[in-house]
Write a structure and sequence with these properties.
19% strand, 10 strands, alpha/beta, 329 residues, 12 helices, ten-stranded mixed sheet, disordered N terminus, globular, 44% helix
Amino acid sequence: MKRRSLIHSAAALALPLALGTTALPAWAQDKYPSKNITYLVPFPAGGTTDILARLISQKLGAALGSTIVIENKGGAGGSIGSEQGSRAAADGYTLVGGTVSSHAINVSLYPKLGYDPVKSFTPIVLIGSNPVMLVVGEKSPYKTLQDVLVAAKAKPKTISSASAGSGTSQHMALEMLGFKSGTQFIHVPYKGSGPAISDVISGQVDMMFDTSVVAAQHINSGKLRALAVSSSKRLDAFPNVPTVAESGVPGFEVTSWQGLFVPAGTPKPIVDKLHEEVMKILQTAEFQERLKGLGMQGSTMTPAQVSEFQKNEVEKWAQVIKAAGIKLE
């Protein structure tokens, strides 16, 4: 009898391993969370993903009765931090801030990407989406997008444009602008929006496409001048800023988005719990007002809907990147 009990015990312990390292016993899921949670931001501090992570983490930590620690891991348009997140234990203790670049664009840009943006993660929520704005420093000679295009056509590859990294929505917006207007620019990639926009403000770089989340405060303070917005319609928060299409580049539209993911294989009860609690935060009047002020539109998608949306985004950007002939090492 003793030998039989040992065999049964060994089999019970081996079962989760046979099912994969992500299988958690029911008691572990019921007690979730029982320790600190890491919110991995694959960009430096100061960018859109970081700002949203800090807005969400404080309230989410309080709702879960846990402490959420922000960890910034920038580089390669969000790829380095996202790869780290994809390899984390699928136990709900690592959240990953995903973006259109890290979770849709980069897979078509980098031939040796260390993760699959769809298969390596399970979505929790789509936090929101927003266009990018073309901005220049307050002392820039460019007052309109047409000023930029005229100068770029007169002297190709002389106007520099910063981005949060190769493959980000900022970079793709620049490539699309060049492709559709027949102009050429100098792309200057950084490891995040924070350091990139600082150099635009100081005049070290001529311009930059960036999200309204990051650019708004600098536009409102007068440090930056907004020339155009990448959406099909003007933003309510910036009604005087024309769209790129209005400014002489018809058919131009680029939308950035922000989501929250966990490593693939995270138990469904934990995914459901995180989705429920984060959605409560996103739907508060306070957060909705904050999103509106940042020029973002919130989302109410379920994890399954986010997954389908993400797959469509991967396909869309693959077509754009192939048509433009862009490839990064």
